[in-house]
Specification:
2 copies of one chain form a homodimer.
Chain A: H1 2-10, H2 24-43, E1 47-48, E2 54-56, H3 57-60, E3 82-84, H4 89-99, E4 107-116, E5 130-139, H5 146-161, E6 166-172, H6 173-183, H7 190-197, H8 205-215, H9 220-230, H10 238-247, H11 249-253, H12 255-273, E7 280-282, E8 296-302, E9 310-316, H13 320-325, E10 338-344, H14 345-355, E11 368-372, H15 378-390, E12 395-397, H16 405-414, E13 419-423, H17 425-429, E14 434-437, H18 439-442
Parallel strand pairs in A: 1-4, 6-7, 11-12, 11-13
Antiparallel strand pairs in A: 2-3, 4-5, 5-10, 6-8, 8-9, 9-10, 13-14
Helix pairs in contact in A: 2-5, 5-12, 6-12, 8-9
Catalytic activity (chains A, B): tRNA(His) + L-histidine + ATP = L-histidyl-tRNA(His) + AMP + diphosphate + H(+)
Enzyme class (chains A, B): ligase
InterPro entries (chains A, B): aa-tRNA-synth_II (IPR006195), aa-tRNA-synth_II/BPL/LPL (IPR045864), Anticodon-bd (IPR004154), Anticodon-bd_dom_sf (IPR036621), His-tRNA-ligase (IPR015807), HisRS-like_core (IPR041715), HisRS/HisZ (IPR004516), HisRS_anticodon (IPR033656)
């Protein structure tokens, strides 16, 4: 023990805070989860792209609202300020802007990759500082709500495929903006008041109101008016909520509000065709912290157990690409409208792992294990395994000169290898092998 | 243009130096390359693990010799000094040390992941600052040269599978140490003189000798003696080289040297059984810069064209895990002997891309495209595509209310989708669709 202590004085044998390793069994589950999700994304015609793990720092700044403080910076060792990516959405928008006139004007793309946030880690809940996101986005000028409906369909297919019970909370930035405008929020305070509303899933209305008034200097009467919408209408189903808003004459006079309501109505028509309308629930208290959303926003929450919170989220962001691509000669923005969803796969992974019988997970793909009886027969085993490899068969043998018979059987069983090929003196003399079907033991 | 200039004043629309995006066609080739390599790695019984993209800085320090200056550091924003991983070998050794008494004492593992080096990028040659490595390693106490032979067999299978012409240069750290000891290199200079020898593939013997003597203060007579081995024996084939060394009585008296020669002889016997002996060429000038190798070392170089250099490399590193795991109660190192190979897949990728007809790469997996004739039929197309999705069929449609017929055909052809399903008024009335086999056009 002392020596380990001595060593510890020199370095800590650990992964950095909020990061972790994944062993072979966890990887087996994770890769099967990714394969399931990839299959769904490809079913909807998506291609995949790859972007660097870090971006120029200026690309990320001003995109994440109050959460920008969670961005990891690289040390400046060579003249460029870079940061690890915070999500896959901003890099995708940067990618689209850089592609210029290429085919990327219209694109369905998925990306399954790691992102980085200096958040307070809660390892047991799957909240890490390095974690995977599975993103699907549709970029391009299409007709209203068609891509939005497809993205929500994909989200439902994905969570169904991994057998997660969920519901989707839906809102629209223009409905929210309408609420804020009708309630009398000054336009320079809209984003920060929106951030406060976003906390309603964790804080009480009283606490959120306090943040609006005491911290953010909003008039109490304005806050109360916001409250009639975001708190007072809670529990209403989507149809009654839409009806209520449409009956609110003052609200519907607001251009932003009425556009938002029309969008949601059209979206629900399409979701009905896609058989997922009942999965989606209009929730006026859903705000989403990120700055870049411009249209519908949504969040999938698990309904089986408390506390896991949001497992996927997304929305429409029509102006983000334009923030990078600028304007054309006539001063018109060269933006590309986009809508997408990001599945927080670590939380899904935690749920799946909890369901597993770890013993039964087979981590290798090995089909055949070669076992020698008697005197080692190293080169004979090597020649045989080589023959199998060259025939494309996944085969293993014990990397010892004279392995014990018992240890070879154990290795074969432990790895759940379906076939054992037994080689002994008799077999060699007759140029034969014995094959044992191990699957009866495995099942 | 002025507006773009204005924007450029605020940020640069680019990826960081030495990094790049991969578009959908490049990803199609890259994913198929990874699938090929993964299949080979799994054929040899490997599992996969995942480790974080960054490590505690102390874990990486002192492992990479003169190249340590190329490590990317993260800014210290939260109390820990972290760096991006430089390779996958050191994190794997750290992982093994942390697993302690678990099954990881013996492990075949592969990992395909990005590593980071602040090197001078040469994009045209595929030398980037962020790049993929495909690693296969065998950890555990086995009998001599059996795992080493399997790793070299895997390297040959991998490069054969991607149709790269190559040869493998082989050396042994103990042979090199023997050469240095016999030549009279002081023991504290062995690693730095070894680094100089490693440059013989880029520099002339005169330049390397100058580095040894002028820069590193080695006696000229010692340098000359090294030269008789690493330069004087160039061009000899493996068998004559081994014979030459075995006839060198003084050399063979050195314990390190004779062990190295014995290892290489045994390795060649095993490689012969694995049908890859002729791929491997003993080369006394191969040194490999990294500090952690202890046994055989090797490098695969492409033989088709000049200048691409090493496309894969590896070796045995028996002490690296012990640097993390320390010693047991009796002061005995708790190390795990390892041997492995790392395929520098970016270079292979560059070669593969150069062979492609970009037009013919199909990036989506879409099987069916739905085309409406006449009046848009949006909801009818949506209902049909939904039916296909729910049957697991990869299907797409144009996300427009009333898409033009010609544009729909173009989209179908451009994505090389094999089947078009045509929906019109007549078809709807008869509850039928027309199916067109598009593959004749594609081929």
């Amino acid at each position: 023990m002392t020596t380990i202590q001595d060593k510890k004085a020199q370095f800590q044998l650990k992964t950095p805070k909020g990061t972790r390793d994944y062993d072979e069994k966890e990887m087996t589950i994770r890769n099967s989860l990714f394969a399931t999700i990839t299959n769904i994304f490809q079913r909807h015609g998506a291609v995949t792209i790859d972007t660097p793990v870090f971006e120029m720092r200026d690309i990320l700044s001003g995109k994440y609202g109050e959460d920008s403080k969670l961005i990891y910076d690289l040390a400046n060792q060579g003249g460029e300020d870079c940061s690890l990516r915070y999500d896959l959405t901003v890099p995708f928008a940067r990618y689209l802007a850089m592609q210029g006139k290429k085919d990327a004007q219209q694109m369905k793309r998925y990306q399954i990759a790691k992102v980085y946030r200096r958040d307070q880690p809660v390892m047991t809940k799957g909240r890490l500082r390095e974690f995977y996101q599975c993103d699907f986005d549709i970029a391009g000028q299409y007709d209203p709500m068609i891509p939005d409906a497809e993205v929500l369909k994909i989200l439902c297919e994905t969570l169904d495929a991994v057998d997660i019970k969920f519901k989707i909370k839906l809102n629209h930035r223009q409905i929210l903006d309408g609420i804020f405008q009708v309630s009398g929020v000054p336009s320079n305070k809209i984003r920060s008041i929106s951030s406060a509303v976003d906390k309603l899933d964790k804080l009480s209305w009283q606490d959120v109101k306090k943040e609006m008034t005491v911290e953010k200097g909003l008039d109490e009467s304005v806050a109360d008016r916001i409250g009639t919408y975001v708190e007072g209408l809670k529990g209403k189903d989507t149809a009654s909520l839409l009806q209520y808003l449409q009956n609110d004459v003052e609200f519907m006079k607001n251009a932003s509000a009425s556009q938002g309501v029309a969008d949601v109505r059209l979206l629900l028509e399409f979701l009905d065709v896609f058989n997922v309308k009942d999965r989606v629930h209009l929730d006026l208290s859903l705000a989403r912290g990120l700055d870049y959303y411009t249209g519908i926003i949504y969040e999938a929450v698990q309904t089986e157990s408390e506390g896991v919170g949001s497992i996927a989220a997304g929305g429409r962001y029509d102006d983000l690409v334009g923030m990078f691509s600028g304007t054309n000669k006539n001063g018109k923005s060269k933006t590309i409208p986009c809508v997408g969803v990001s599945v927080g796969v670590e939380r899904v992974f935690s749920i799946l792992m909890a369901r597993q019988n770890m013993e039964k997970i087979k981590s290798t793909a090995t089909q055949v294990y070669i076992i020698s009886v008697g005197d080692g027969l190293l080169k004979e085993r090597m020649a045989l395994v080589n023959e199998l490899w060259e025939a494309g068969i996944k085969a293993s043998f014990m990397l010892k000169n004279k392995p014990k018979l018992e240890k070879q059987w154990l290795a074969c069983e432990k790895e759940q290898i379906p076939f054992a090929v037994i080689l002994g003196k008799d077999e060699l003399e007759n140029a034969k092998v014995r094959i044992k079907d191990m699957r009866v033991n495995v099942l």
